[in-house]
Write a structure and sequence with these properties.
The structure is a single chain. The protein contains eleven helices and 15 strands. The strands form four sheets. A five-stranded mixed beta sheet has the order 3-2-1-9-10. It has a domain at about 165-315: 2-Layer Sandwich (Nucleotidyltransferase, domain 5). It is globular. Helix 7 (about 205-215) crosses helix 8 (about 220-230). It starts with a helix and ends with a helix. By secondary structure, it is α/β, with parallel strands linked by helices.
Length: about 325
């Protein structure tokens, strides 16, 4: 599986609410490409269409609108005081966006996964089901699998939390807890020797922080997200109301994840006696805030889990950990 042929034919995909990340490997080196999983629309004019094409901005023309998608969508949203729209919502395909799958396909093509002669064996991330929403996750998993198959790929899903474990916990034989703090969901998995013992997701995640902070500060969620991603830190200056609100909802998210971890341990039967302390690894864009690891660890110490935690660590590359783990699975199992 370490041959150049195997590396060339495999791809790991993190199909997230906020971003789509593609992971590949060449000569032993991991490589990542990503696009914002979002779009904005503008009225169609021929001048605008020509200018966007000249600038290399990803866009499509639909009826009387220009759809700008991918990384440039956020810049245009900020310039024109618009909210970005998402092909995905709450970790799954957005049922309120009729063109959701078509836009995901366009983004995959932009990331070099267009199929045809460039077909791959792909592992793609899927969330664990939020409480009571198993059916929508099943639809999401199947729809993405069908899309990738239609594009000419061989595709199989991997649980997002397990992908984090595959990416980060080789040193413990893939034993420990992986948590991906994404845009739509926080995904959690406990694995023993690479086998998942339980997994779940929590709906309080990055988008929850953005929308909640926006609601109480009368700001656009897009603007709040930019502040959160560019300048927020738990040890930073929190004198303005936007950063104060962001911290409050970050704290709410952390406490919810820890509470659900306790419930998961109480619900699962026959958890093996691990015999040693295990690591807990944090990943995802919402884990990038300065001081996040320390804040999570402090909250966890207030409510210790029924297993001993050796350390709380941040993934080596939090934004790319899920895609990397999906690629590890593709290299090993496809």
């Amino acid at each position: 599986m370490n041959s150049k042929t195997a590396e060339k034919g495999r791809l790991g995909l993190d199909v997230g609410t906020s971003r789509i990340v593609a992971a590949s490997r060449a000569d032993g080196d991991y490589q990542f490409r990503s696009h914002l999983n979002a779009f904005v629309t503008m009225p169609l004019t021929q001048m605008a269409a020509r200018t966007l094409a000249k600038e290399g901005v990803l866009h499509a023309v639909e009826g009387n609108e220009i759809i700008i998608y991918g990384n440039e969508a956020e810049r245009f949203a900020d310039l024109f005081h618009l909210e970005t729209r998402r092909p995905m919502s709450g970790g799954i395909i957005n049922p309120d966006e009729p063109q959701a799958l078509a836009l995901v396909r366009r983004l995959l093509e932009a990331l070099g996964a267009g199929g045809g002669e460039n077909s791959y064996r792909i592992c793609y991330s899927v969330p664990a089901a939020p409480l009571g929403r198993d059916a929508v996750v099943t639809y999401h998993e199947t729809a993405l699998g069908d899309l990738l198959s239609d594009m000419g790929h061989q595709a199989r899903p991997i649980n997002e939390g397990l992908a984090v474990i595959y990416s980060e916990l080789e040193d413990t034989n893939y034993t420990g807890i992986g948590i991906s703090f994404g845009g739509g969901l926080c995904n959690v998995c406990l694995a023993y020797l690479s086998a998942p013992l339980f997994s779940f997701s929590v709906a309080k995640a990055g988008d929850f922080i953005d929308s909640s902070a926006a609601a109480v500060t009368n700001e656009l969620a897009t603007r709040v997200r930019i502040v959160k991603e560019k300048s927020f830190g738990f040890n930073g200056n929190l004198t303005d109301k936007v950063r104060q609100a962001i911290q409050i909802y970050y704290q709410d998210m952390i406490q919810e994840v820890i509470e659900e971890l306790h419930k998961a341990f109480s619900d699962v039967r026959n958890v093996p006696k691990l015999g040693r302390a295990v690591p807990l690894v944090l990943s995802g864009g919402s884990a990038l805030a300065g001081g996040f690891r320390e804040r999570f660890e402090a909250e966890l110490k207030k409510r210790p889990l029924p297993v001993s935690i050796a350390e709380v660590r941040l993934a080596a590359d939090p934004l790319n950990a899920t895609a990397r783990g999906a690629l590890v699975a593709a290299l090993a199992e496809m």
